[in-house]
Amino acid sequence: MFFEKLMNGYEGVLEYVAEFTVHTLELIGIVIIIIGSVRALWQAVSNYKKKVPTSVIIALGRSLALALEFKMGAEIVNTVIVRDLKELLVLGVVIALRAILALLIHWEIKNEKKEEDHTTVPPKE
Fold it and tell me: How far apart (Å, rounded) are the C-alpha atoms in residues 16 and 81?
């Protein structure tokens, strides 16, 4: 009886901590997206005013990739409080989609860097 009450209390604390952590990580991801988007927009506008040709895709992509990492961390912690198989399946799909998005963003950043390096390096004579 005592052990059962202790385990129920422990499960309640674990669920509370997991939910708090999930919401905190999700919020951090959202804040990173907002800050990264504003910074990229600011950089694009200032470069346009200065008539400097530069790409903001890399900066924005890095912010989105970092935000996705926090959001995937939240989904991983969320597995602690999953109650049934259907929730676990949905969670698995969400994690897979976010992982695919992260890979696509990293690929886009890599290609953009190559393109930017190619255009900034003067041709050899």
Answer: 9
22: tokens are 């999930």
Describe the crossing of helices 85-120 and 57-78 by its angle, rounded to 10 degrees.
Answer: 160
Residues 6+ apart with CB under 8 A from 31: none
The one-letter amino acid code at 73 reads G
The answer as to whether 57 is a domain residue is yes
- Structural domain count, the chain: 1
The residue written with tokens 């040709």 in the block is 53
Angle subtended at Cα 56 by Cα 52 and Cα 41, rounded to the nearest 5 degrees: 90
- 125 occurs within a structural domain: no
Q: Is residue 24 part of a domain?
A: yes
Q: Which domain range does residue 56 map to?
A: 2-120
Q: Is residue 80 part of a domain?
A: yes
pLDDT single digits (tens) 56-115 = 888 888 898 899 889 988 988 888 887 788 888 888 888 888 888 888 888 888 888 887
Which percentage of the chain shows pLDDT scores above 70?
93
Alpha-carbon distance of 22 to 78, in angstroms, equals 6
Cα 64 to Cα 32: distance, rounded to the nearest angstrom: 8
